Amino acid sequence: MLGRVAHGIFWMYRYLERAENTARLLAAGQRMALTRGQDLADSEWKSVLTTLGLRPAYEEHFEDYTGAHVCDFVLRSKHNPESVLSMVERARTNARTCRSALTAEVWEAVNEGWMTLRDLLAKPVRDATLGAALGAIRRESTLARGATHGSMLRNETYCFTRLGTFLERADNTARILDVKYYLLLPSISYVGTPLDSGQWDNVLRSLSAERAYRWLNAGRMDARSIADFLILDDRFPRSLVFCYSTLRENLAELAQLHGAEGECHAAMREADLRLNDKTVEDIFEQGLHQFLLEFIADNQRLAGAIAQDYRFVS
Amino acid sequence: MTASEPSNFDEMHAPDGSVRQAYRGYQRWLEQQEDGWMKRKDFEAESFFRRTGITFNVYGENDAEERLIPFDMVPRIISGGEWRRLSKGIEQRVRALNAFMHDLYHRQEIIRSGRLPERLFRNNAAWLPQMVGFTPPGGVYTHITGIDLVRTGPDEFMVLEDNARTPSGVSYMLENRETMMAMFPELFSTVKVRDVSDYPRRLAKSLAACAPQGAGPKPSIAVLTPGIFNSAYYEHAFLADQMGAELVEGSDLRVVNGKVQMRTTVGFRPVDVLYRRVDDEYLDPLSFNPDSVLGVPGIMDVYRAGNITIANAPGTGVADDKAIYSFMPEIVEFYTGEEAILPNVETWRCADPDSLKYVLDNLADLVVKEVHGSGGYGMLIGPTASKKDIATFRKKLENNPDNYIAQPTLSLSTCPIFTKKGLAPRHVDLRPFVLCSPDGVDITPGGLTRVALKKGSLVVNSSQGGGTKDSWVLDD
């Protein structure tokens, strides 16, 4: 396949994944804001902006942190080039550019999704319609992923759809955990003690993990258990270990298809060393924040190596 | 139901209001439909096109918005007998065009014999000196041709235009049929219509047959597109997808070891046949427009060394010139030794002083076109033009007569479309698509019918608000 097309596919799935995770983050934020006092609501919205790396851009345009302003900025503002709407647009543009590498089902899912969201986000989103908009974003992303799973040949192209999805997902999980943990905790002395269970519930909700977590950890709601779950549990499809095991499989598949390994395979092996056989105690000993920062940087390096190895650009 | 104005040939209805033979099966089906079905189906068709992304970017619109070409649900129907006559004429014309191209870039017998004035192609921007003395692989210049036909009577089909450069619209021919079959499956079980859906396979086969020597048994084919902002991008992607070919942009290609190669995830891989949808001037910045980023530096050297097939061959745009067109009857006769089966529309060459005088005296009745124009731009339609437009054109003609030809305003045939008030006749033309390879000439039955949606309008171009119809050739 063409390097340019591999590039387009990889990013198309990154954008779709990011759009979906952003919607999830906003949904959890809104829930938090509704169930807490004004101060907590404000700091919740601040943390959403921080997680998305949008705080400086937001603060150029707003002085307050109301849900309406934050959601509008994150979802559709023209001042925000990273808005969900522009991510969905870019995913759709990439799908057009790579139209001949995709099945009609995938193309139609992405194209229809874009049409739906473009209409839905044409006007400012109000409290009353926020839930519907966020639901639609997650649904459209899910449809595209489902169409991919159900209709695409398991070949090189498919590997790039998976690599894009899981690189982005690993990044997003790490960022959400990092921000929630590092910025939200009032003081480091709270680490490891049962805290405001609402806060932790919110971390889990931001990753659609609340039900899975409860299922496995009935009654326990502490930082260690949650970090353990979100980083190391290989049964949860958004955990770092799960994302990396999918990345590993797909990189191995590419190496087999091409009969050669590249820089990205070496980077993958290094990442494995850092993740595998780790316990949550090891991670806390190193410091969770430090661990996550390094993880995010390594993840970016891996993405760079993939782009290099598979000739995304000339 | 509206009967047609007596001056036009209505393809569905005879002047006495009866339905012509070719449309009778369709009419029977129509009579069985319930009231209100049409509106429902129209909505269905629109959402189908939006969803599948069949769109058309219109040049000159600021935000390059993707627009749909309006689709009309009444098929345009041609009988098997009519089609047999037409396809003979089309094949003859395409063979002549291909021979003409070869001659123009070699011995120029047609000029030596005095049948064609030399200045006609010497002044032609589409003429490429780089092609002189070079024969493309398989001797094929016009791999894909679109012949625009108009009809004025029961047996009067004529050629309005030849598109030998890069004819577009074939994806609409295919998608219109798919849409019709999805919306009216029962219609196709009662009326037998000749299939068009294997066009992409035939195209791939025809292109492969034109591969350069040394390409191997399975030549690698790529479609070169200017990218997603091009008005026909949908078609480029569609054809690549349907042919199982790579869809490439200029930035994907590079000349490596004397071959044009594409940058894949595992390195550079050769391309044997390039179906390019990029104009000649952008094809090779080293040979033509140095600012082009759409093409491949050095591709013309590879081409001239016989290591790649470019379809259509560079320089075939000469044949699209409307002054050349006016000589097509002579050209057909010169290369085939037969009289042209399909006549031209009567054409006055303004370069000729007597013709120019006639044209200037009759501007209000004529259609005036630029010789290099296309897409319905830069033309004057006398009968509907304002006095001001006519005065402007008069100046243009006087200043640069060589740049224009004129034709009578034809009473183009009409075919009904659905309107809010029921069926109403609108003017149509037909663009059949013709493939040419050393294995022969292959014409897909039917083609693209374009229809002027405004009452009385003669302009069918999609860039000017025209629509399209499914075109049926009956299997009778």
Automatic annotation (TrEMBL), chain A:
Top-level division of the source organism's lineage: Bacteria
Protein's name according to its UniProt entry: Alpha-E domain-containing protein
All copies of domain DUF403, residue ranges: 1-310
UniProt organism field: Aurantiacibacter gilvus
Pfam families associated with the record: Alpha-E
InterPro entries (alphabetical): ATP-dep_Glu-Cys_Ligase-2, DUF403
Automatic annotation (TrEMBL), chain B:
Residue ranges constituting the Circularly permuted ATP-grasp type domain according to the UniProt record: 75-452
Stored InterPro entries: ATP-dep_Glu-Cys_Ligase-2 (IPR051680), CP_ATPgrasp_2 (IPR025841), UCP005522 (IPR016450)
Organism: Aurantiacibacter gilvus
Name by which UniProt lists this protein: Circularly permuted type 2 ATP-grasp protein
Gene3D superfamilies: 3.30.1490.270, 3.40.50.11290
Organism domain of life: Bacteria
